[in-house]
Amino acid sequence: PLVKPEFPKEAGKDDECVDKEDVGAFYKEVAAKAEPTDDERDEAMSLRGEAMGLMSEGQFEDAVAKLSEALTKNPNMAPIWAARAKCYLKWKKNACAIKDATKAVEINPNQALA
């Protein structure tokens, strides 16, 4: 007999992208950010590194939180948007992944990861 696969619990929450925040508000907040300082750029990349480690351990929710924090430091970095899109994809939040991948490509049309 065929067994119907169960969807992950997260699949039902695919539209909840940024830690239960209003996604539109998050995008507006990072869009309004002034040009980041060198320290903010460095901190964003450090947070991205931490997030990649969390993602490799399967801790997708924590990785998304780190990447979201990185984006508040430097919202104009396509690799951070692409990394968060990849994390959302692995977390089975496809709609969120598409939003972030689209943002990565808007910032840098040559962003291969997106």
Which short descriptors sum up this protein?
single chain, 114 residues, mainly alpha, 0% strand, globular, disordered N terminus
> Hey, roughly how much beta strand do the residues contain?
under 5%
- Characterize the main sheet: none
Summarize the helix and strand pattern as letters. HHHHH
Percentage of residues assigned to helices: 55-70%
Terminal-residue CA separation: 39 Å
Number of strands: 0
Mean pLDDT: 79
- Going by helix content, strand content and strand pairing, the class is mainly alpha
* Rg calc: 15 Å
| Contiguous helical run count | 5
Secondary-structure blueprint of this entry?
Blueprint: H1 23-31, H2 38-56, H3 60-73, H4 78-90, H5 94-107
Helix pairs in contact: 2-3, 3-4, 4-5
Would you mind describing this structure in some detail?
By secondary structure, the protein is mainly alpha-helical. It is 61% helix and 0% strand. It contains 5 helices and no strands. The relative contact order is 0.16.
Concise account of the structure shown:
The chain is an all-alpha fold and 114 residues long. It contains 5 helices and no strands. Helix 3 packs antiparallel against helix 4 and helix 4 packs antiparallel against helix 5.
